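Trying the structure run again after the queue cleared.
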Amino acid sequence: MVQIGYTMMTEQAGPRDLVDHVVRAEETGFDFSVTSDHYAPWLESQGHAPYAWSVLGAAAQATSRIPLMTYVTCPTVRYHPAVVAQKAATMQLLSGGRFRLGLGAGENLNEHVVGHGWPGKTTRHEMFTEALEIIRALFEGGTVSYHGNHFDVDSAKLWDLPDQAPPIGVAVSGERSCEIAGRLGDLVIATEPKGELISSFEQHGGQGKPRVGQLPICYDPDRDAAVRRAHDQFRWFAGGWKVNSELPDPAGFAGATQFVRPEDVAETIPCGDNVDDFVEAVRPYAEAGFTEVAVVQVGGDHQREFFDWAEKKLLPALREL
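Done. Tokens:
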């Protein structure tokens, strides 16, 4: 059975609301939760971007059962990998072992803010591999010194280290990232239900490891309202990650999606309240071999009614997959 998760979308709600949402997700019966980690929203209409790690710390104290996970953190430009390892170890302790560290090669949108520029794809993969090696070494304990082509670590040690290190998830979109995930990850992360990503991950050492996907949805009893909201806040999704990773700010995403129509968005994001439509949107992930799928309910102000509907209709239907 595919596990169903809930996404704390930091781009569409403030920090206190996000914590309230994950508490409600736990009460509703979601199997796990994930949290985006952005410095800016994709579109101005989303309107938020609180610091994800503060939200996660509060969520760890406000909940008792639901697993927590970054989806995803970039450990190369805005954050140094040694600091990411410290954050993750602390989160694992605060949550009582419920935390997983989801990592990815990042987006220009969030990483350019520290003024170091945005490297090309090949360089990003090199930096990401070094970052994973550093984080894994620190999770193993002891003092770590590391001198790579992109990162240096000088006698670093995690002084508060959990008995069990946080599992590391690696986001993938192609062959190179699948190779990195299979070799250095404990689980794989993807936003598209592509069986070839899972196959490649397994070929590179990912056999038997969890496979986590994510899917935006837009519940509303008024389907037209749901379509309008999905278009207003989530039309950026149509660009795909090869484009999205390069755009620098919300204005860039607005320009890149200016010709995306509401009906275009509705073709890729299930909208309305017909539970069968949502089940059919999740099904390709199950068929591709994903073991977990986190849903994103589009619209920060439309979570309360979503939880009521999810508890009564959506989750029971998805349990049948």
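The mean pLDDT is 97. Worth checking whether this holds up in the mutant runs.
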